[in-house]
Amino acid sequence: MNRTRFYTLLGMIISAAFLRMIPHPPNVTPVMAMALFGGAYIDNRRLAFLIPCAVMLASDAMLGFHRFMPFVYGAMAAAVLIGFRLRGGKNVIKMLMAAVLASVLFYLITNFGVWATGWIYPKTPGGLLECYAAALPFLRLNLLGNLIYTGLLFGGFSLLEKTFSYLKPAMISHSTESR
């Protein structure tokens, strides 16, 4: 990956993380979109996980740590994996589907964490369902934020690639010459 492309991607992920600092409705954040974007665009798979999580950790250090962080970061890792699936070809339908799937996984994983580590809901299947039902309004808000920020990150970078050819991925040429 060329350096300019890499630093542009990194800058976009860092910028998205700092959007968590401005006032916003609950769960209308770029968290899952950052992870999807990293998975889809950062060539090195380790860095695709590391960068969104490190940037998220830095913003968590400013906002405050909480006991559900392992579940949030687990959901982010799942979103990076979904982003890997977008590498073969990105289009609006695939990105929308990825954003919806990432939001649903975030909802399932983090609310499982609320149920498993909390004291509000009984540790029964019914208690888990009650927890999920109570969190439905947050799913709607997370989905809204994820769709907005996925569109901004992916659409913004696509526009940058079209405008600045040096941001396009390097083409690997395979020589057919015999040596």
Core attributes:
179 residues; mainly alpha; 0% strand; Arp2/3 complex 21 kDa subunit ARPC3
General description of the model:
It is elongated, with a radius of gyration of 18 Å. The two termini are 27 Å apart. The protein has seven helices and no strands. The protein is mostly helical and 179 residues long. Helix 4 packs antiparallel against helix 5. It has a single domain, classed as Orthogonal Bundle (Arp2/3 complex 21 kDa subunit ARPC3).
CATH class: Mainly Alpha
Question: What are the secondary-structure elements, in order, as H or E?
Answer: HHHHHHH
Give the helix proportion (percent range). Answer: over 70%
How many β-strand stretches? 0
Count of individual helical segments: 7
> Segments where pLDDT lies below 50 for 5+ residues?
173-179
Strand content: under 5%
**What shape does the CA trace take?**
elongated
Name the structural class. mainly alpha
How many structural domains can be distinguished in the coordinates? 1
Q: Alpha-carbon distance between the termini? A: 27 Å
| Largest β-sheet summary | none
Average pLDDT rating: 94
Q: CATH architecture, please?
A: Orthogonal Bundle
Report a brief summary of the structure:
The chain has about 180 residues and is mostly helical. Helices cover about 70% and strands about 0% of the residues. About 30% of the residues are buried.
